[in-house]
């Protein structure tokens, strides 16, 4: 007869996500995971696979919880540019916040740490960025159709610029204690939408 799990896999995955997010992939050992999750190594392997598989599952979970609110906020009916401006300012505020900036964004962290040499991580990062770029693009197309964005602006290139800006805000915010750096950059980029 198979034994029932003596732990909640969902809670364990959330705990793994938080540890990877805070420490990064390379700095998190399997022993760290065992200690942080409070479950045995064999249970981790049986439930989630090896450390890399657990990391990819944590990235999936991060995507499922972090991206939907952004997609929802940008897809609301009504004026579109205020939603884009709010998103950029929210990223800048989070990147400047002393408590939040040190963790940064798990997707951005994955892009910097693993994506250059790990195809599975690259696929996760690209999927996240494609979704964000797509919703930014459609929001900017809507803004243009509603007369909020000048006809001479290209919604796709603006969406790509904003994607790169958002990721850059996360990186610079994580490394720089100067909140003015990310806030000034965000405001300058938003001026391009006028």
Tell me what the structure shows.
InterPro entries: Homeodomain-like_sf, HTH_TetR, Tet_transcr_reg_TetR-rel_C_sf, TetR_C. It holds the Pfam family TetR_C_13. Residues 29-48 bind DNA. The protein is an all-alpha fold and 194 residues long. The chain is 72% helix and 0% strand. It is elongated.
Low-confidence stretches: none
Amount of helix? over 70%
Radius of gyration from the alpha-carbon trace, in angstroms: 19 Å
**What string, H for helix and E for strand, traces the elements in order?**
HHHHHHHHH
Discrete helix count: 9
β-strand percent reads under 5%
Mean pLDDT: 91
Please report the total strand number as a whole number. 0
Distance between the termini: 66 Å
Shape: elongated
**Mind describing the biggest β-sheet?**
none
Determine the structural class based on helices, strands and strand pairing. Answer: mainly alpha
